[in-house]
Amino acid sequence: MSKDQKERTISGFSRLNKEEKMRWVADHFSGDADAFVRTLEAFRHPDAEVQRILDGFSENTLANFPMPFGVAPNFLINGKVYCVPMVIEESSVVAAASAAAKFWLERGGFHTRVIDTRKVGQVHFTWHGRKEALEAAFPELEKRLRKNAAYLTANMEKRGGGILAVHLRDMTAHEPGYYQLMVEFETCDSMGANFINSVLEDFGRTLKQFALDWPHFCDEERELSVIMAILSNYTPDCLVRAWVECPVEALGNCGADMDAATFAERFRKAVRIAQIDPHRATTHNKGIFNGVDAVVIATGNDFRAVEACGHTWAARSGQYRSLSNCTVENGTFRFELELPLAVGTVGGLTRLHPLARLSLEMLGNPSAHELMQIIGAVGLAQNFAAVRSLVTTGIQKGHMKMHLLNILNHLGASEHEIKEAFRHFADHVVSFASVRQFLEGLRQRSETVK
Ligand code: MEV
After folding, report:
1. 192 close to ligand 1 (CB < 6 Angstrom)
2. pLDDT tens across 17-26, in order?
């Protein structure tokens, strides 16, 4: 490493206090250290107690990174109206969700059903003994695994959850000596990551000890190595279904002066294309996650886990496909989404983050079960809005309105200039260059008038 580069490294950074950390980063990684620190300070919360809570979520925190916290009202889900909190930085997403919610509000709303809420975790281990001996020992092993972990599972059992099943999986066809304990859990209203991982690590210890103690193993079979014990974010049995349906004619005029039957057929084809083609499927599903992630984040849940799971589920046939499906049959338009969703409404950030707590309050403090259904409905609404735009007017019309505002703000436009720009760009193409040119023209004209 060069001397320059060496000077940009540090040991013991985490032990510096926040001011020292800011200063160190500013001195080594910014062009203007004072301005850098000033910006960071401006984004720290004025209430020291709130800042303390936020700092507690992560490490080496310097400031906060605000994201827009919006709402999509009018979500009718299983006959109940929700105002859904959404945290997202992409323009048009909340507007699209709101428009889709309103559209379906007048057509019976969203229907949802939780198919199952089973979560899973694995203990991966290697063992080079006789497979039959391990299989014969498994019933006793399972008893001991459950008994030893009872101190961890007692509370969850009181809440109606716990360990549902333990399976031994022979993976030796893939890797010599590789086996798994595949464990199924019910974690009630919590996402359950800590609970599951604690139980799995306990299982790992019991497993090792079992191999040492079990009288029917020979000496060579006492050696068992636990490679890792960790939940799986792929939870195909923690699944929600959301759907909307109405007579085709009730779809009405869906934009671009398209009649309902033409719209329904174009929409169905667009979804079918996302079933067939992975390039389109990826973008199509991204549109679904625009809505899903926004609610997952607003409620303090783990969006990386939800995304990873959803994409694996989308590829379960061996090819990456659309998560949603559309049929137009016997005069009925039906649009449906099935998505595995492991979320919680207790534990983690859900009650710690002041805005996550507020989001849950706004949703009526739902159970995890209910939250899965709300998120499923929002994912479907988002997908409906995107595909509706795509097969009618195209998405740029809606997007560009917000994009225009972002460009105008970037160029420091005044309120009057923003108003004028919106009037002008109602029928002109928006681009950074065209907006800058328009503003320059406007400013020149007003100079001349002065
Ligand atoms: C943009 O964030 C999402 C869309 O591209 C989704 C889609 O194409 O279906 C509009």
Report:
1. no
2. 999 999 999 9
- pLDDT of 271-310, one tens digit each? 999 999 999 999 999 999 999 999 999 999 999 999 999 9
Residue 262 tokens, joined: 């033409």
In this model, does residue 339 exceed pLDDT 80?
yes
Percent above pLDDT 90 for the chain: 90
Residue nearest to atom 1 of ligand 1 (CA): 287
What is the predicted pLDDT for the residue at 147? 98
Instruction: Find the catalytic residue in 21, 353, 399, 403.
Output: 399
**How many Cβ atoms are within 10 Å of 367's Cβ, its own excluded?**
15
Whether residue 220 lies in the annotated active site:
no
Active site residue 399: yes
Catalytic residue among 90, 213, 361, 440: 90
Q: Which residue has the higher pLDDT, 325 or 393?
A: 325
Q: How does residue 429 score in pLDDT terms, banded at 50, 70 and 90?
A: confident
321: CB partners within 8 A, 6+ apart: 274, 275, 276, 278, 281, 314, 315
User: Is any atom of ligand 1 closer than 6 Å to the C-beta of 284?
Assistant: yes
Q: Kindly report the pTM of this predicted structure.
A: 0.91
For tokens 């022979």, name the residue.
Answer: 170
Rounded CA separation 322/284 (Å)? 7
Contact 72, 83 (CB under 8 A): yes
